[in-house]
Amino acid sequence: MIKLTSRAKQAVETKNRIYECGVNLIGKYGFDQITVEQIASEAGVSVGTYYYYFESKFELFKEMFKRADEYFLNKIADNLESNIALEQIVEFFEKYADFTYENGIEIVKKIYISNNKMFITENRPMQTILQSIIEKGQSSGEIPKSMSSIELTNMLFLVGRGVIFDWCLRDGNINLKTTMKKVMGIVTKGLN
Question: What is the pLDDT averaged over residues 156-161?
Answer without folding.
Answer: 97
